[in-house]
Amino acid sequence: MLLLLLPLLTGSLTSAAPDPCAVVTPAEIASALGSQPTPGKPRGPDEDEDTGATAWTCSRQVGKRMLWVAVMEFSNAAGATKGIDLVIKSSREMDDAIQLSPVAGVADQALWGASKDGAMWVVRKGRYLVNFTVGGEGNHASLQEGLKRLAVLAAGRVGS
Predict the structure, then answer these.
(1) Residue 37 DSSP label
(2) Average pLDDT over residues 104-115
(3) How far apart (Å, rounded) are the C-alpha atoms in residues 111 and 157?
(4) Dist CA 112 CA 35 (whole Å)
(5) pTM for this one?
(6) Under a CB-based contact definition with an 8 Å cutoff, are residues 16 and 40 in contact?
(7) How far apart are CA 9 and CA 116, in angstroms?
(8) Omega of the bond prior to 20 within 30 degrees of 0, cis?
(9) Residue 100 has pLDDT above 50, yes or no
(10) What is the CA radius of gyration of the chain?
């Protein structure tokens, strides 16, 4: 199932909370995905007991698709690296999960994958992971470049 990895990325912090509904603008989403998004529905903070990270999520309808954005904050970059390693491992262990592969040259680390059920970009920037997941109708592999643009924009905005 597409959303099986989302709980890994929706794992509470006392610092200023990143707003997952504001890491990219509605205009940027529309440009990347071809439809105007509905207002975001934020959730969090949530504590991920396995990683110690704090996560905030945002969901929105974008045309006939759903977009989920998750921002995870770790105590340090090493923790975020372990978090991205856990995402890779989990995607490979679940038959119905989107199979993610490392992509060089995007943020500090990045993963991409698409299936018949959806598409996902995960980027690490310092001690943050940002995850863009899309599900719904359509050719999800065709969203690679658009979602990549969103992931790069968000990576540049978190923690800065």
Answers:
(1) B
(2) 94
(3) 18
(4) 21
(5) 0.87
(6) no
(7) 21
(8) no
(9) yes
(10) 14
